Amino acid sequence: xxxxxxxxxxxxxxxxxxxxxxxxxxxxxxxxxxxxxxxxxxxxxxxxxxxxxxxxxxxxxxxxxxxxxxxxxxxxxxxxxxxxxxxxxxxxxxxxxxxxxxxxxxxxxxxxxxxxxxxxxxxxxxxxxxxxxxxxxxxxxxxxxxxxxxxxxxxxxxxxxxxxxxxxxxxxxxxxxxxxxxxxxxxxxxxxxxxxxxxxxxxxxxxxxxxxxxxxxxxxxxxxxxxxxxxxxxxxxxxxxxxxxxxxxxxxxxxxxxxxxxxxxxxxxxxxxxxxxxxxxxxxxxxxxxxxxxxxxxxxxxxxxxxxxxxxxxxxxxxxxxxxxxxxxxxxxxxxxxxxxxxxxxxxxxxxxxxxxxxxxxxxxxxxxxxxxxxxxxxxxxxxxxxxxxxxxxxxxxxxxxxxxxxxxxxxxxxxxxxxxxxxxxxxxxxxxxxxxxxxxx
Length: 442
Known about the structure:
By secondary structure, the chain is α/β, with parallel strands linked by helices.
């Protein structure tokens, strides 16, 4: 879904067996069908949004070399298109899959949620690693908010119940992604507060997130704060430039080196103000962030140079595994928006130029930061689950710099993706089937 222009608010405005043989076979086949796909997920917490609102985009299988070139192993998609889910089979890439807004009313009913899950997700779990389901996108602030807001939480609860009924709730998280416009106040971060009119929806959502251990997802775009007020917001601050002096919160006295972490901490403060108990356990993650490389003449700052600087800095910030000033022990997670320029996006001209790549697969610009090769899922295992953290050698799994250019991915690299090794779940299930037949025969 296209990032929306956010309302200014300080620093940041805004899916019965009878016999013993049959019983054993049923259990083994169920294990095979519901087994998680490859455990190898990128050590880096950097992800990317793969939107497809375009008439000239390549087929889904063509994105794999691009992801390998970037070294990114976490991808967010906005629906459960079977062609897309099949394209990521046996890659180890961890997917965040969206339940489109138009499906919310159906999945709000428990029966509808179970049917959607059975039809759209379960058939792919054997080979495709699906870690998160996001119910709608920016529902509370979107154009259909009046019709959809009341069914958002019921849809989350029903789908989580359907996931739990299949024993998949430790594997798949159910949440939703918010526009930063849910904040009524965001400057300074310590004064962060949700819009009062949205509290009746957000407070019970926070209860749900705390109970299920699900993250609060926010689409955060420093670009909008800068483009709305280029004189009041320093460009280097919005671009996350490491050398910028930063800003101090006058209340907390915390130092904010860039606008993105300030926006995230404003959300943390808003959660604490709305639901103290939830604030102790709910993690804020950035489900979208990016910078356009082109736009109309009046869209200040939408240039290839600024887009390259912002996205390079955002990837570096997340890959370093650092937290925010308020939550230094919680590594920031973020998904860059987006993989491709999408020519059918509605709205401002800049909406169609958020991609790291043009539709023909060539880079829209060159990134200065490159993720280390050992962060990729492609061509090797790793053991990184949906909750992140950890790498193959038991260290923290967060990139802290160093290495040489030969160990890094380049945005223009394009090598064929390879299956990761260690397909132990499938092997186990196949062995279980064989063992079941043997036991009954004996």
